[in-house]
Prior knowledge:
The protein has 7 helices and 7 strands, in the order βαβααβββαβααβα. The protein is of the alpha/beta class. The chain has one domain (6-205): Rossmann fold (3-Layer(aba) Sandwich). It is globular and about 50 Å long.
Amino acid sequence: MSDKRLIIGIAGGSGCGKSxxxxxxxxxxxxxSVTILPQDAYYKDNGHLSPEDRAKINFxxxxxxxxxxxxxxxxxxxxxxxxxxxxYSYLTCGRSKETILAEARRVIIVEGILILTNPRVRxxxxxxxxxxxxxxxxxxxxxxxxxxxxxRSFQQVLxxxxxxxxxxxxxxxxxxxxxxDIIVPQGGANHVAIDIxxxxxxxxxxx
Length: 207
């Protein structure tokens, strides 16, 4: 068995089903063989801002991510070192004083809407995946998620989508699809694509 670690990037628009794809891949691989680095943990700490200013944060722009720290953690995990992953809250827009210990396992999955937009992240990924989904399906998931998890009203979700999510998707996220090695249409519902991807992962790390 090789000591090689496989770094996989899974990107795609907000609400496309990335988390479902990641969860299904993890279930299909041996227990304790996967470490997940969610891009959302690396949002810049804006807990000091007023509630009014927090409402103006553009979470869908690459400048909202602390990519330097994410790249550093990817490199540490590849080298076999554990990392202290930040804990970010959408409610406070800040980081917790606590962190999560992420161990260097055989498969490292970096997941998030913007990870393929950053050249330094891309060049550290062994397999680049873009999860594609119909815009209407994505919007329905975003509405449900933001009301349930982020405390927004229906009207606030629609305003946020129109002002930030949709234009940033068209400007940054959709164009990053061209960097993908594998495109998964229909998100987590595409079990054939997920099975093929999982088989490829097994071959690469000789599990």
